[in-house]
Specification:
The protein is of the alpha+beta class. The strands form six sheets. Strands 1, 2, 3, 5, 6, 9 and 10 form a seven-stranded antiparallel β-sheet that branches. The protein contains nine helices and 17 strands. The chain folds into two domains: 205 residues, no CATH class; 135 residues, no CATH class. The protein is globular and about 80 Å long.
């Protein structure tokens, strides 16, 4: 979790980045912004950092050659953290780099903010950090002014909504050897047509920490149950839901994940256990990522995954049955007229 109640905004430079493919200019400022107004500084902190308070996924810089020094943003971040030059000059280099990769025709013009923070908190620790943010979406605002005993309405065009940060990343000065710890947001290009922000500008990959280990393990198990087991073992929807519920119960109650313990307690079938371990191994090979056999479970990752672990049995368009356990109290059958049915047993009506 990222919080900023102890943080200070030390530096901020602003540049305007056009779309290079559309021959729009890159306008570089000549100096940092002077934050003489404390209220403006507070509003900027709110605009930049509020969207990150619920971000748990962490990334790190990488380069296809495995030489981190060839990653432009890793290089600039390292130089800024080392204090080896003028902050504003580094921000102009960052702006030029972003402009160079802004070649997709759908990329929008916007202001680039490069900031330096002190005492930004993540998971209870305070770190120096660099923030890089881009505002692309502009809005029109109305403001009502008193005029003696009457009122006057004015408007402001091309204004920024402080509650809608388009793009951003925060680079924490920790784990440098692994590519730093980086949080990222991209609200305007979720469809993938302009993935330049994470893939080309920043060049990021997911960190293999406890949060991502937990999220990936749950996701892989869910796909195994709903895809592989359905075809390989011909299990019913009720049994699928039961397996998903049992896995979620395991992750909620345990502090650490152990693959053998998990397999025996949740899957509890020798053939299915071997199939799951093979499915996991194939996933690791296909996506070039490792899911450890033992790791500390992240509660935040479990909480997020609960949303996609469906415990609902949908019957045509008429009924939805929510199943939270005791699947042995549900019987499936077909009546004399060929109609399918479920028979549900219970002790108390709540």
């Amino acid at each position: 979790m990222i919080t900023y109640f102890e943080a200070a905004l030390n530096h901020i430079s602003i540049h305007k980045i056009g779309n290079k493919a559309q021959s729009e200019p890159c306008t570089l400022s000549t100096q940092e912004v002077n934050l003489y107004d404390g209220l403006i500084g507070g509003l900027l902190m709110q605009y930049f950092l509020n969207p990150f308070e619920k971000v748990n996924e962490m990334y790190q810089f990488y380069h296809p050659t495995n030489n981190l020094l060839l990653n432009e943003m890793y290089h600039f971040a390292s130089e800024i953290f080392d204090g080896g030059g003028d902050f504003h000059e580094f921000t102009t280099q960052i702006a030029k780099h972003l402009y160079d990769v802004s070649s997709h025709p759908k990329i929008k013009t916007g202001e680039l903010y490069v900031t330096h923070f002190k005492d930004l908190q993540i998971d209870g620790e305070l770190f120096e950090a660099i923030g890089i943010f881009k505002s692309e979406t502009k809005e029109t605002y109305l403001k009502v002014y008193p005029d003696q005993r009457d009122f006057e309405v004015r408007y402001e065009e091309d204004a920024i909504n402080l509650k809608k940060l388009d793009k951003g990343c925060i680079i924490f000065n920790t784990d440098r050897e692994e590519g730093f710890r980086v949080a990222v947001i991209d609200q305007t290009n979720k469809s993938g047509e302009a993935v330049y922000w994470t893939d080309e500008f920043l060049k990021l990959k997911i960190r293999n920490d406890n949060y991502n280990q937990t999220a990936t393990a749950l996701s892989v198990y869910k796909d195994f149950v709903t895809q592989k087991m359905e075809t390989e073992f011909d299990i019913s929807k009720v049994d699928q839901i039961d397996l998903l519920n049992r896995s979620m119960k395991y992750f909620k109650e345990k502090d650490t994940f152990d693959i053998d313990e998990f397999a025996n307690e949740v899957i509890d079938n020798v053939q299915a256990i071997e199939s799951f371990k093979l499915y996991k191994s194939n996933y690791e090979e296909e996506f070039d990522t490792e899911i450890a056999d033992n790791f500390s479970i992240s509660g935040a990752a479990v909480k997020k995954q609960v949303r996609v672990f469906k415990s609902v049995l949908k019957l045509d368009k008429n009924f939805h049955i929510y199943i939270h356990g005791n699947n042995e109290w549900i019987e499936k059958g077909v009546d004399d007229n060929g109609r399918k049915y479920y028979k549900i047993f219970y002790e108390n009506e709540l």
